[in-house]
């Protein structure tokens, strides 16, 4: 079992602590948090070991799980990697693309592995259909959330939209050609609602909307490709797959048939992929353990996290 330690015991940090503690692939060594009052509260409530410094925790583990504010991601990861430790970084990977690129160089130099916490890659609704998403040419995403003061220190693009940016970059096998965006600051000092249009070199267009001042929560993505429409509800863990194929000469009387202007007939049919319920955060942490133990590439590499951050920061420039 890999010895793991968590840096940061805030809302998400506590979730990571609990899951690492119950995982059969990790041995939780403990945590460090600079807020000693909060740290002692966590010790009293859960009994996890508290380390007195970042360095002390790094020395005691094989894997450092960094769940601190984004501004400190680079410093924490750099210290860990230079000590030969594997690092798991919550999203966004770092504060700047330059910092992210330095981490990529460091993990190669010190022969360790890194993974970024883009948790929607492990959402059971997405994993049930990701193999069916082939060369999408139009993508539409909506990620809407009710207002929560937590996270408003950064634009909604880095808080929410970056999840959809990463998903889109994972399924569109083409380079970004052009980006346009607009946004509005309603209650925070940074934009609370934003819309972005990403154009890819292969002709694919993605339209993304993110809001943290919505009256209801929504996390939906729609993928349009030749002869198929795929809808993924990341919140409700539901999918909809609608496909078309050439209509048979003698279709079933209940078959849904469409005929275009050229007289070509297509039959519409529906697929219902099985969705295996899971804990996406536990899955991402355990696949990282598998990547370390089996010397394979992590599901969400530091390179993936860097590209998502690069696109997100390009969008932020328009806001």
From TrEMBL:
Q: Which GO terms describe its molecular function?
A: nucleotide binding
Every Gfo/Idh/MocA-like oxidoreductase N-terminal domain range: 3-118
- Residues forming the GFO/IDH/MocA-like oxidoreductase domain are 155-216
Fetch the PANTHER family from UniProt.
BILIVERDIN REDUCTASE A
Q: What is this protein called?
A: Gfo/Idh/MocA family oxidoreductase
Q: Source species, please?
A: Abyssalbus ytuae
């Amino acid at each position: 079992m890999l010895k793991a330690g968590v840096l940061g015991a805030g809302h998400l940090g506590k979730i990571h602590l609990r899951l690492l503690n119950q995982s059969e692939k990790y041995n939780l060594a403990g945590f460090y948090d600079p807020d000693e009052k909060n740290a002692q509260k966590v010790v009293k409530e859960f009994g996890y070991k508290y380390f007195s410094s970042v360095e002390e925790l790094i020395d005691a583990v094989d894997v450092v799980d960094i769940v601190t504010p984004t501004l400190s991601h680079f410093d924490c990861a750099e210290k860990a990697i230079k000590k030969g430790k594997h690092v798991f970084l919550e999203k966004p990977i770092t504060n700047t693309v330059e910092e992210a690129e330095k981490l990529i160089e460091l993990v190669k130099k010190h022969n360790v592995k890194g993974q970024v916490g883009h948790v929607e890659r492990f959402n059971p609704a997405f994993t049930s259909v990701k193999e069916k998403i082939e060369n999408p040419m139009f993508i539409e995403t909506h990620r809407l959330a009710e207002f929560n003061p937590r996270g408003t220190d950064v634009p909604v693009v880095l808080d929410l939209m970056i999840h959809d940016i990463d998903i889109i970059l994972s399924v569109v096998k083409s380079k970004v050609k052009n980006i346009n965006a607009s946004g509005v600051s309603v209650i925070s000092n940074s934009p609370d609602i934003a819309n972005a249009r990403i154009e890819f070199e292969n002709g694919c267009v993605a339209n993304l909307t993110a809001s943290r001042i919505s009256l209801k929560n929504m996390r939906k993505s729609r993928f349009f490709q030749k002869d198929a429409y795929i809808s993924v509800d990341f919140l409700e863990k539901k999918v909809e797959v609608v496909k078309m194929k050439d209509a048979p000469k003698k279709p079933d009387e209940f078959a849904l048939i469409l005929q275009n202007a050229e007289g070509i007939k297509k039959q519409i049919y529906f697929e219902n992929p099985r969705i295996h319920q899971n804990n996406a955060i536990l899955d991402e942490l355990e696949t990282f353990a598998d990547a370390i133990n089996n010397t394979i590439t992590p599901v969400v590499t530091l390179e993936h996290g860097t590209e998502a951050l690069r696109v997100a920061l390009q969008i932020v420039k328009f806001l």
